[in-house]
Specification:
278 residues, alpha/beta, Trna Endonuclease, Chain: A, domain 1, 3 domains, five-stranded mixed sheet, three-stranded mixed sheet, 45% helix
Amino acid sequence: MKVTKYSGEVVTFEKDKLKKSLFKSGACEADVNRVLETIEKQLYDGIPTKKIYKMAFQLLKKIDNVHAAKYNLRSAIMALGPAGFYFEKFIAKLFQMEGFETMTNLTLNGKCVSHELDVLLRKDEKISMVECKFHSSQDAKTDVKVPMYILSRFNDLAVNEYSLFNQNTKISKCRIVTNNRFTEDAIQFATCSNMELLSWNYPVGNSLKNKVDFYHIYPVTALTTLTLLEKDKLLTQNIITAKELLTNKEWLNKIGLSQTRIKNVLKETNQLCNILKH
């Protein structure tokens, strides 16, 4: 059986790969097998992987909203676009979970030119700059030209001293974060240049997906009990993560949700953020 990827490439359908992704959502073996059995009956040669993904998501949603939300994580992060402004804020909040102080969306003068920076971090008196490369397509990759370009910006900035986080200091580290993947050349160049990378699947075992799952800091766009319009309304009010809804519950009422729907959204949020057990 052949399937068509997002890029248009035709490849062999890998049942085990789909099964693994379903297990990662937290679904039990019986539920995973039920979803697989239903999907297999609807497969045809050349079926788009996007359609398979959508079927799996809808089937999981009928079983458990939280499983569906976790399965949909990559798309939920992609929904922080299209420009990536909310993605930068989400990444800042993720680093906050790791004990960093953060600043976002600022401009600093380098030795030669000024630079717009996505995120700045401070921890143990050391300052890092973070450049976020957001992609709106699942098949897009961040290639070697990106770390080469960002390294030149870092070198221009690293020369000067700045007043940041209430101290006069220099920027000593450079990081690049993407919601998709890096090419092998990009990883090799960044490693050689002492730049830290974070992507959907890198570093292995400590990737963006791993960190989101570990800290239970899911974007508000992951919630299955909200519509796209409702999610957009929350993002414009700087409600970026699902956890923030728990301390800003009034916004669910402000965007027009009924009390019954508010109860359902908060139940999913609590379970997704590991506050309540299923």
